[in-house]
Amino acid sequence: MARIEIDEARCKGCGRCVVHCPKGLIEFSTELNERGYRYVIYEGDVEACTGCTMCAVVCPDQGVEVWNHRDKQTFVNTSGLTERMTHYCPGCTHGVIHRITAEVLEELGLLGRTVGIAPVGCSVLAYEYFNIDMFEAAHGRAPAVATGAKRARPECIVFTYQGDGDLASIGGNEILHAANRGEKITVIFINNAIYGMTGGQMAPTTLPGQRTTTSPLGRDVEDTGHPLRVAELLATLATPAYIARGSAHDAKHSITVKKMIKRAFEHQRDGTCFSFVEILSTCPTNWGLSPAESEQWVADEMIPYFPLGVLKEPAAQPAATPQEAQP
Amino acid sequence: MTKVLMKGNEALGEAAVRAGCVHFFGYPITPQTEVPEYLVKRLPEVGGVFLQAESEVASINMIYGAAGVGVKCLTSSSSPGISLMAEGMSYIAACELPCVIINIMRAGPGLGGILPAQSDYFQATRGHGHGDYQVIVLAPSSVQEAVDLMTLAFELSETYRNPVMVCADGMIGQMMEPVEFDREGRGPPLADNDWALGGADGRERRIVNSLYLTPEDLDAHNRKLKAKYDLIAERERRCDLDAGDEPADLLVVAFGTMARICKSAIDLVRDEGLKVALFRPITLNPFPFSELRAAMDALSERGSVLDVEMSMGQMLYDVRLAAEGSRAIAFYGRAGGVVPSPDDVATQIREALST
Ligand SMILES: Cc1ncc(C[n+]2csc(CCOP(=O)(O)OP(=O)(O)O)c2C)c(N)n1
Asked: Best exposed site among A15, A324, B141, B293 by fewest CB in 10 Å?
């Protein structure tokens, strides 16, 4: 029989696993954990558990591990993250994207030569969570820091992890030029349509009509312009690049995000090109929605404006070696 | 070693390579553009990295990245560009990373002009970024000294893990003089260390960070930095005193290009029998307070001080601090790219001595 183990102490009670378990085997406890969250429990007809791992895939807090019916562990917390609990709000998908990024680096065997760059924004403390060498950069400047690090140490895998205020507003110039130069770095771009850390102000990606603390009547595009589609913008550059957009709002899309992030790091590892993955991410606190409503909002409002998929990828390298190519 | 005739900016670039720096990130601006134009050709010869950044904001952050992975690195700019580097310098100083920044000062404020000035003294020694941090500032007064101070700049930046600024003006940058380098070829890279990033394989992971959310921790960090700055102030003050016939009746204080011109002016007035000394700070930060005070104390009983700058009076504040009211201090300054001639300064000296 397949089974899961929930780490009660890590649970922030966001309930994403409750929503995403196909068999409805996870429910809220009546108790609070030591951090004051109503944690989730795995009870009832647990024989029905298929070990599908959906609960673990959507958990932003590394709170679930999974074993299959042969008692083989099929979902292991990645060694690419530290044990530290994140400070992210319950249901925020920053945690999911951290996990995916770390898993990819671990699976590709790159953790030991990776240098990550944390931004200013909610993920400013990413250096506490990624179990690798990390910089913390000034607001918006991560692609420049990455450029300096990568040019100085080309053997390192260098990535930035940036929010939409950081990357698309104050750091617009740095991202544009790093992409245009084709820096062999990877950029993980978290689009949550808002400034999370500073408490919910309008971001360059805030949707038309979306209410934020600095667009209290809803974003007026006549006054503040239209939301920036950064992936599309970068995809217009002539420089070869891998540009993709995914969404972390549910398990299925998170699995696609993982494929995209993997591809991005493979391109860097192989020295092919600049790689950029934009990921639509939830901000329940500043959107004023529950975690489940936030997921729905991504699906209903964000994805139509920010279509998902691979926008650009260099053609596969010709198989012929230089010698063979000679006449 | 043989002397070669070089333009100041090019000599600065070559001096960086001889000091072991082969990583340059910068953005064009007059009157320092010959630094990147020289290095773009020179660095490939030594397997280095040259990159023209999209802005000074980016170049200083590229420096942050390169310094953080443990390479000797250089950026170069002029006044408005240095203003844009302010935030980045604060981060680099906070994270205690070594790097060298050249500022070939031009006249301000605003877009100002492209001619030589010394109006970034406050910015270099007090200002630029936010927070309680300091940058070591070296001020050459000849092309040869610019070369020598570049070597020193890289040494100091590595020893103290701190940004060092070589602060010259358009005159030093643009003029050609014979120079001698104290070593052939590329100098050594940064010594092995326990702070540079580069992948945590086989060791504890490392973090380059300036965020401290607990006030006590940030206070402790500030105290640690302050202790370092105090040590630098104790050990690294540099200056040049031409005392002349003691005791002098006037002490002229000037740095960089202005000190050179003052030297010529003093030669003129000494021929007239006037007793004038020249004090030239070489480190603007740490400022040689005690040495300047000693030079003031050695003046004749009614001796006074004349501070001369290509600004509206910025180093003047440090000269006053050194004097602590013990001497009368006159000031002569021109701005906007007007470079006083030796005759102009001689007139000021005569006037100062006649009052
Ligand atoms: C130079 C500078 N300007 C402004 C700030 C304040 N600030 C911190 S985070 C932030 C917005 C971050 O939003 P985003 O990048 O969207 O990331 P999120 O918090 O939503 O993950 C701002 C404006 C700062 N730290 N530095």
From this structure: A324
What pLDDT does residue A46 have?
87
pLDDT of A317: 59
pLDDT digit string, tens, across residues A151-176: 999 999 999 999 999 999 999 999 99
Query: Model confidence over B154-164: pLDDT tens digits?
Result: 999 999 999 99
Q: Which two tokens stand for residue A31?
A: 């108790």
Domain at B239-354, CATH class = alpha beta
CB contact under 8 A, A149 and B68: yes
Residue A316 pLDDT class (50, 70, 90 cuts): low
When pLDDT is cut at 50, 70 and 90, the band that residue A319 belongs to is: very low
CA dist list (Å): B351 to A47, A283, B304, B344, B345: 101, 70, 12, 11, 10
* Cα-to-centroid distance, B352 and ligand 1 (Å): 54
pLDDT less than 50: residues of chain B? none
Q: Tell me the residues of chain B between 205 and 234 that have a Cβ less than 8 Å away from chain A.
A: 205-211
Write the CB contacts of B40 (distance below 8 Å, at least 6 apart in sequence). Answer: B50, B52
| CA dist., res. B76 & res. B59, Å (int) | 9
- The answer to whether B27 contacts chain A (CB < 8 Å) is no
Place of tokens 């050990």: B235
B138 has which bridge partners?
A: B166, B283
pTM for this entry: 0.96
Omega cis (within 30) before B109 = yes
The alpha carbon of B178 and the centre of ligand 1 are apart by a number of angstroms equal to: 50
| Domains present along chain A, CATH in parentheses | 3-75 (3.30.70.20), 94-312 (3.40.50.970)
- Determine the average pLDDT of the residues in A3-16: 97
For residue A216, the distance in angstroms to the closest alpha carbon of chain B comes to 30
What is the per-residue pLDDT across A54-76, written as a single tens digit (0 to 9) for each?
999 999 999 999 999 999 999 99
Interface TM-score (ipTM) > 0.90: yes
Secondary element (H or E) of residue B208 = strand B207-208
Same fold, B4-235 and B239-354: yes
Task: Tell me the β-bridge partners of B308.
Answer: B332
Domain boundaries defined on chain B: 4-235, 239-354
Who lines ligand 1 at CB under 6 A? A 120-123, 139, 163-166, 190, 192, 194-198, 203
Which CATH number describes the domain made up of B4-235? 3.40.50.970
What average pLDDT does the segment A261-269 reach?
98
Quickly tell me which residue has 């500043």 as its tokens. Answer: A286
CA B16–ligand 1 middle distance (angstroms): 36
Structural tokens at position B203: 């060791």
Q: What is the atom index within ligand 1 of the atom nearest the CA of B87? A: 1
pLDDT at A44: 79
Smallest CA–CA distance from B87 into chain A, residue: A138
Report yes or no: A144 at the B interface, CB cutoff 8 Å: yes
